[in-house]
Amino acid sequence: MALDGITLYKVKEDLEKYLPMRINRIFDTSKTQIVFSVHASNGRYNLLMSFHSNDNHIALSDRNYSTYNEPSAFVMVLRKYILNGVIYKIEQFDYDRYLLMHVRARNELYDEMEYTLSVELMGKYANLILIDSNKKIIDALKKIPPYENNRRTILPGVTFEAPERQDKKDPFASPSIDFNESLVKQLQGFSKQLEKEIRYRMDHGDPFEHIVKEIQDSDSLYIHKDQDSTQFHIIELKHLGLPYEKTDIQKGFNQIYFQDFEKDRIRNISDDLFKVVKRQIKHFETKVTKLQASLDDALNLQSDKENGDLLYLYEDLDAKGLKEVTVTDYEGNTRTIKTDPKLSVKANANKYYSQYQKKRKGKVYIEEQIELAQNELTYFESLNEQLSIAEYSDALDIKEELLRFGYLKKNSSSNKKKKKVNLYQLKVDGHTITFGKNNLQNAFLSFEYAKSNYTWFHAKQYHGSHVVVDTDKPDEKLIRICANLAAYYSKGRYSSSVPVDYCLVRELKKVKGTKPGFVTFKNYKTIYIDPYEEKELSISMI
Question: What angle do CA 227, 55, 77 make, to 5 degrees?
Answer without folding.
Answer: 150
